[in-house]
Amino acid sequence: MDEFINTVNSQDFPLNGFDELVSSMYTPFYYWYENKAPGKAWTTFMPSDMLCSSFYRALQDFPILAGRFKTDKNSRKYVSVDKSNLNMPVYTDSSWDIDFKQVKDAGFSTRLLPEDFSEACGIPTVSVFATTDIKLGIFHVRRFKDFSGVVVFASISHAIIDGYGFFAFMNRWAEISKSMQENMTKQELELPIGIFIHDRSMYSKCSSQDTDALDDLTLASSADGSAITRFLARLSVDKRNRVIKSIIGSTRFICCSFHVTTPAIKAFRETVQKYAPQGIDFSINDILVALVTMAISQSIYKISAKKQNRFVPRMTRALFGSSDSVPIDTLTSIIANMRTRISNPHIKDYVGNLSYPRYILSPQALIQDENILENISAIATSVRTVISRTDEKYVGQLNYLLNSESDIYMRQAMYHSRIKNRLVVSNVSKSSYYKTDFGAGIPTFVRVALHSFPNTVVVMCGHPDDGGYNLVMTLEKEMAEMVVQNKLWMDLVDSYNIDV
Question: What is the pLDDT of residues 328-338, one digit of tens each?
Answer without folding.
Answer: 688 999 999 99
